[in-house]
Structure formats: structure tokens, C-alpha cells
Amino acid sequence: MDRHYITFTTPETADVVTDSSPTPGSEEVLIKVNHAGINRADVLQRLGLYPPPEDASPIPGLEVAGKVVAIGPGCTHLRPGDRVCALTHGGGYASVAVAREDHCLTLPDTLTTEQAAALPEALLTVWYNVFERCRLAEGETVLIHGGSSGIGSIGVQMARVMGATVISTAGSPQRCETVQALGAHFVANHREDNLAAQFESAGFAGQVNVILDIAGGDLMQTNLDLAAPDGRVVCIGVMRGMQSEINLATLFMKRLTLTGSTIRRLETTERARCFDAIREHIWPSVVAGDIRPVIDQTYPLSAVLDAHEHMRLGTHFGKLMLDCQVQ
């Protein structure tokens, strides 16, 4: 079987290359990819700002969905013909891709591969940061910044089904309304003045137990001000800048925890353990239709640069996808 995949010969040039399909190794599966999710990490990798780990595929793409066509030795659950979505260690922008069996989720008939490819990275990111690192519990209040993003839109729904009070941010009145429809109790418009005052008027100032921050920069002090005593703040992105100036007294007086992570550096065994937890706690809600990915637009594989520009502009709501079925 041939493989067609994307290579960035320069940051502004993308070519579709053809070679032979890889062979799955021990405990790996080979997936005929129908769709792949686009993540901001892919854009940064293309620009040379976020190089992949040494053991990762140089081909971009971190999440795919399609059909298993081959299994490696040691696989015990999946068989050729199974429909799955999967987290990949790179290699997702391709017509076939390799993934670990324990990083795959079996698809129900009600979920298309376009929808499913939007899930693995967001599910893992939210689960690991919000529920593992920050220990969000039922009945607590969580602030998911960027509720209109791929991660944010899934995070709002995940926190809702787990019994938390969810608040969020978005960049226009219409986007705020749409994020509320996903299950957020209140959504502040981050393009309006004084974000903290909007949450204060809604009764959430100093009441937020967990905050998922995808932006960094000047948002950090606002996070600390909004946090409840013993609150937990996790930063996973720097769209508003790498540097933050904070008042450490806020951290001390509230006994806050400030942490961060990057999923690409998460150990394989930790990813597998998180996927086990997702299968138990979250996947039933996906199967039931209580959690649904929001797809903004799907591009053909050859139009990957257009898709990346769409992501850079930030005008999308939910996920941007690639159709990897090369004719």
C-alpha cells in the first residue's frame, strides 16, 4: 500500500509525497486515515518553533481517524476493519498512519471519522490537565478559556458531563452564546474591557477552583485573581505571550497551584493510562452523543497551508480538519 503524506519543504511550502506504507511495530496498528485533526502545534512545527521529539515522526499530525488495516505483534484488542480514532506520535497528515493500540478509541456507528479525528488530542489534553493535574471534582467551578477553540469546546462539554459548573471565554457575543449552548453557565467576551469585571458581575470572582489557560501572557494575573482559595491553574498555551508578570502575594495568600504541561512530552505510558481513564469516564458520553466535536471546516490534504492560515487567523469555531483520502 502506498502512503501519501505532507512534507513542509519550507515554512511556506507544502508538498504531497508518496512512499510505501510503514509497518506497525509491537503493540501498534496501521490506520487507513480518512481524516486528521489540525492543531496549533502543527502550525508551530511547520514554522520551526516547536520541533517534534527525537523519537517522533517528522511528518506533522497528532490525531487521526479511519480504519485499522494491519496490526503489529502484541495487539490484543483491535483487528483489521475496526474503525478508530487515535493519537499519533506524529505522522497524522497522511493517507495511512501508525498509532499505538492503547492510544486508540473504537468508534461507534454514530460518529463519523471527520468528527472522531477532532477528539484524541483534545480529550487527552483536557483530561490530563483539568482532571489529572488540577483534580477537578464534581460540584467545583472550572474556567475553560477559549471555549470556541477545539480544545475549549470539548473541555466545556467534558467538564459539564463530569458535574462541574463551567464558565468560559470567547471573542464575540455570538461565540459566547454558542459556547453557552455547549454547556457553559457563563461566557465572558475577552475582546471587551476588563475580563475580570465580567466574571465578578456574574458572581464568579474568587470562586473558580480550576482554570485551564490556553493563552498565557497578560491573562495570568486575571487567572490568579479569579481563582478560589486552594485553586489550581494550568497553562498549556502562550497565544498572548511567553512572559507573564504576576503578583506573587495573590499566589501566597490563596495557596494557589500554578502548573503547566505539553502533551507531546508526556510519556507513552502516561498517555495510555489517561486513555484508559477517558474510556471509562468520558467515552460513554461521546457514544451517547452528550459530547460532540464541533467542526468548523475540512480541507483536502493538499490544501494544508490554507488550513494552517485559517487557524492562524483564529476565525474558526471548534476544529479544523484535513481530508486525507487521496484520490
Explain what you see.
- By secondary structure, this protein is α/β, with parallel strands linked by helices.
- 29% of the residues lie in helices and 28% in strands.
- The chain has helices spanning 40-46, 113-116, 120-133, 150-161, 173-181, 195-201, 220-226, 248-254, 268-281, 283-287, 304-313; strands spanning 2-10, 13-20, 28-37, 63-71, 83-87, 96-100, 104-106, 141-144, 165-170, 186-189, 208-213, 227-235, 257-260, 295-300, 319-323.
- The strands form three sheets. Strands 3, 4, 5, 6, 7, 14 and 15 form a seven-stranded mixed sheet that branches. Strands 10-9-8-11-12-13 form a six-stranded parallel sheet, with helices on both faces. The chain has a two-stranded antiparallel sheet with strand order 1-2.
- Strand 14 (295-300), helix 11 and strand 15 form a beta-alpha-beta unit.
- Helix 3 (120-133) packs across helix 9.
- It is globular.
- The protein starts with a strand and ends with a strand.
- The relative contact order is 0.15.
- The model has no long low-confidence stretch (mean pLDDT 96).
Class based on secondary structure composition and strand pairing: alpha/beta
**Radius of gyration, taken over Cα atoms and rounded to an integer in Å:** 20 Å
Shape: globular
The percent range for helix content is 25-40%
Number of strands: 15
Q: Count of helical segments?
A: 11
For the termini, the CA-CA separation is 14 Å
Average pLDDT figure: 96
List low-confidence stretches: none
Strand proportion, as a percent range, falls in: 25-35%
**What is the string of helix and strand elements?**
EEEHEEEEHHEHEHEHEHEHEHHEHE
The major sheet is characterized as: 7 strands, mixed
